[in-house]
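Lay summary. Proteins are chains of building blocks that fold into shapes, and those shapes determine what they do. In this project we predict the shape from the chain. Here is one chain we studied, written as its sequence of building blocks.
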Amino acid sequence: MLAGVTATDLDRLPIGVGLPLREAIHMCTRNPPFNLSQEAFSLIGREDLAAQASARDKEILPQHGPLSKTALKEGDIDDGMEFSDEVRLCRSQTVGKAFNPWIFVGGFLLLASSDHDFIQEQETKLLLMCKRVMALSVGRGMFTLATSRPILTETLPIPTLELTGRAPPRNTVVGLDHVDCPADMRVWPQFHNGVAAGLKIAPGISQIDSTWIVYNKPKELTNEHAGFLMALGLNGHLGNLSYMNLHDYLCKGHELTTVGLLLGISAARRASMDLSTTKVLSIHVDALLPPTSAELDVPHSAQVAGVLGVGLVYEGTAHRRMAEVLLSEIGRPAGPDMENAVNRESYSLAAGLALGLVMLQHGNDALGVSDLKMADQLFQYMVGGQKKPQTGTQKEKFKSPSYLIKEGDTVNIDVTAAGATLALGLMFMKTNNSSVASWLDAPDTQFLLDSVRPDFLLLRLLSRGLIMWDSIQPCKDWVESHIPDIVQKYAFCADPETLKVDDSDIDLQTLSQAKASIIAGCCLAMGMRFAGSANQEAFTCLMHYTKYFKDLLGSAVGEQAGKPTLETCMDVCLISVALVMAGSGNLEVLRITRQLHKRHSADVSYGSHMAVHMSIGLLFLGGGRYHLQAFRHLYVLAAEPRVLVTREVENNTACYVPIQVTLKSTEFYHETTLDMISPCILPEYNLIKKISVVSQRYLPISIDLGTDSSISRCLSKFGTVFVKRRAGYLSYADDPKGYRNLLARTFPEQSDKTDVVRSFSSEPQMVTFAGLFCDVHSVCRKAVESVEAHKDPMALWELKLVLSFYGNAFAKIIAHFGKDVKPLLSEDFVTQCKACLDKTLDHATQTGNIPVSSSLDSLNSSLQAVEFAIHHDLPPPHKQPLSALQGLSLVDAVKNSTIPTPALVRLALP
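And here is the predicted shape, written in a compact code that computers can read:
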């Protein structure tokens, strides 16, 4: 397509030939097709699109330049975030620093209290503040997800979770020596701290291999390192760990390391049905072992992690064997003997989630599993009923009853309901199956409501929303439509004494708890439906209910539901609104999360603190949420990189650029255009039709995501668009208001001289050189020398070609491209050049420097006479001697020339 032509070849052409070609190239730079080659973009001067094409073809992004000048100050802990000078990011970083060396604890010494009581009071307050500090790590992991590249010659630093306090005014050290603390209080916070540190590592770094992972292994396995291993699995790096090293880790017998490894390798090989991973998981799941296998002493948490790992490895496959085993494990009975007597709820919930993942969106249409009647069995697990006889390889194992728990012949829904409800939601997700969804409707009578726990009601409404995915509407009317009339009428009754005699059997606590749980379940479904979309209607609705529960917590009528229920529902709504605004850093959500973060009373639980900090993390990321200690980090698998960063192609530095995002028409809205400023979080890629750069300071770019899948894939992988700044403008960071560009300057001599160079080039060497050596006198001297007249007739021919081209091309260029497109040389400039040339030659004939009448007939004419003839298109002497012509014959001979009348008169003179 280019025929081997390069920019160097164009520079070698005469200006009369090269300028028309450059004018054609200039017209192509405005809006070139995005499917050109890298060489074509370089030829037309669009280095920004050339860099984009290189990343598209090679799937390798050019190395980023240095951080912007707004990077972290010296002494701050590097959290991998660019643009960290923004206030909301700084405040979020302050909230999310779980590695502060000290916690400041205040206290007041009462007159009647002793020193011992005062110390105990300080330590009690420190314990309350420690609950908040220990819950920070999960949010920090969200906040710094995939923001750094580790130094491969060093181990990854993991911040220490410090729970020691300082008491003013003397900064006395306060510990937790005189208060009762759970022995395992630090176990899971340390695990989360390790996960947060590992999640900073960006995915796709090929240098992270088994050697580097083992290089980070401490002498004694720790909880932080266990979390670090899980984080490597979540971002895809744990798949590089060799099975020899994996076996070595598992043989150590460290409980949390086993949990982190099982979940990590399962996440790294998600939906792969990898046989080697299945073997590792089977060792930790009794139901997958042969009946004759030796009994292994596997910790309960490792069993739970192994069950969910099976769901991840077989996600969406509808594998019959795995589905059958997981369905049976939801209702696994207690026993035999002393086994399976504690924490049965977590195991059943993990089995339900795993079954939902295996049967994800298959519903009743999956081949080969219809005879299992899974939907009916899950319904029984949810509402209760007679147990079915135990089948499968574990049949003989459970003949011996449990010595601790006696359940009888009915299903214990307190154990099985949560897992079965979520399994139904995931299994029929997005199927819009109204029959199954009706099973999950909220009960509409007092008697039925008494038989359903409020937290199970929340899960039912969530699963119903997952099934009826397309019917979710971002409005309060949709939420209120799920509340039964009896609940709507009596819940949160302001004056219970006004109830009628017929209403004496109404339980206000049950109805109030039901209303709060129904609203929270609907809000969480709405949050997942519009996750990361920044949908304004969904945001308004969810923010309304978040404030609604926050107000109820401080009111007397809220006591009807109880503070724990209201706290849980408020946390769910807060996470839901954070899901919708994920990555946007919305200030209104950040304000309410900071208000809730400041609480450290005994009424605020560890889980509430974690929900608040997860919301802060989601505001600057995006993702989904599952519960259980280690499972809560699985949001990483749902996180989608949708950040768009614009970088100047000259120095690869991130910059602010106004863009327009055109969204496709959907059932909720017509084709819409959003005005944004990059860096920013984009809507879902499948909703975007086109992305355009619309800035006067940068060359325009229009990326149509529907024409080429490679463009969309490259954009989602790297999140980078290269831009090229127009000559005469500074970046928005250097000139936010546009007062310092060349066209806006009233007194250019008072401006910084380096700004002039910076407006044309972003190269640091050029800017430094201009500041040191390029003074005003040298610039002016070079400008005077550049306008001196050229004495070569060939240059005059080239100038005539240029004048002729623009004399005929202006009208055609404007007609084809529009009036807003301007050529390289303006019409006024071309006219001025022609007038100056006419004036110079006319002045030469007037002063006698060109002896026209005597020299034009001679082949040895002077250089000035030749220039006069070339400029006015006079015929050469050997074709038409002009000295022999007079009057009309002379006029007829030069009628095709451009000679003006005064020159024609002088030509006729002897």
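What the prediction tells us: The chain has a mean pLDDT of 78.
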